[in-house]
Amino acid sequence: MFSKAQKRHRDIDIAAMQRYRWNPYKEALLNPISGPLVGVPTTVPVDTYRVRIKAQANFDIIGGAGCIFANPFAALCNDPVPVSPLVPGLHGAAILLGNTTITNTAVAAQVLSNAPFARAQFAGVDPAVPNVRGRVVSACLRVCNITADATKNGVFTAFTDPAHNTLQGLTAADVRKQPKSRMYNACGNEWITMLYHPVEPDEVDGWVWDPRIGPQGGVKTIGANPGGIGDNTPADTQPGFMGIWWNGQAVDQQLLVELHIIAEYVGPLVQQSMRENEARITDALEARHAVENNNTFSVSGLRGDGHTGHSSSATR
Asked: Which domains occur in the chain, in start order?
């Protein structure tokens, strides 16, 4: 028989173990840069091929305003995505750069990712060839003002659309009205970081058959969900649903922009590289709360060098 003191200590030990239990999916969501390479937890475990993907740019702002849009789904391929058959000359990418906003025509530059597959290799583009389907496990968009200290100025406004709909046409003044937007001083050396987490069932239950369209849960045919730029529907993930705006004096500013992703793929092209997923469905709720409670934050340049610097991420 245990004494009361022994029972109390045992209960404390169990509570501590539950509190600090290793949750690989949570760590991947909080730290896509160096967190564990796991897949999205599913009720039935699925073997997948997992990789880290990165897109990076040096953004030169000269007019007093600039904006950065990120679309992790478009980053699953390494080439430009034709975002709409109605606007054949317009393409999307992992990161799009603009001035006060980004619209069908107001795009200053596009940044591609180093994903291992091109769009033509996806099942929804050409099912006649060996192909893949992809899924975003975790992602972060971050920016650091690397301008000389004497001329640094301005503020960052960060916002992720709660339904992962497009941010096209929105300015910093527009998103500041949103309760989940955040503003940060742009005069230091901090990384301003935004974390991705799934908000739609298709993002965890479905797969990206075509990076132009985004996640398609249960879709087995091409073009069944023809979302594209400008249609203002939940399928419209282009040009991006994660955004950071800079506003300040019209003095040249240099911003370092990075998008980091943990992605998983299935299909004939990756069959030999697929492996068991360490994340379990019981990890999902804790992971979601961890990211939702603090999905936008600022960390010093030193802490954010090789990882997100998120205060809740474990150092393993």
From this structure: 8-299 (2.60.120.20)
pTM of the model: 0.87
Query: Tell me, what's the pLDDT at 235?
Result: 53
Assess whether the previous peptide bond of 239 is cis (omega < 30° from 0): yes
Torsion angles phi and psi, residue 98, rounded to 5: -150, -170
Residues of the chain with pLDDT under 50: 14-18, 220-230, 232, 234, 314-316
Task: Supply the pLDDT for residue 223.
Answer: 45
Cβ contacts of 160 within 8 Å, gap of 6 or more: 180, 194, 196, 241, 242, 243, 295, 296
SS (HEC) of the chain: CCCHHHHHHHHHHHHHHHHCCCCHHHHHHHCCCCCCCCCCCCCCCCCEEEEEEEEEEEEEECCCEEEEEECCCHHHCCCCEECCCCCCCCEECCEEEECCCCCCCCCCEEECCCCCCCHHHECCCCCCCCCEEEEEEEEEEEEEECCCCCCCCCEEEEEECCCCCCCCCCCHHHHCCCCCCEEEECCCCCEEEEECCCCCCHHHHCEECCCCCCEECCCCCCCCCCCCCCCCCCCCCCCCCEEEEEECCCCCEEEEEEEEEEEEEECHHHHHHCECCCCCHHHHHHHHHHHHCCCEEEECCCCCCCCCCCCCCCCC
CA 242, 235, 73, 254 torsion-angle sign? negative
- Which string of b and e fits 55-72 if b means at least 16 CB within 10 Å? bebebebeebbbbbbbbb
> What's the pLDDT tens digit per position in 24-45?
999 999 999 999 999 999 888 8
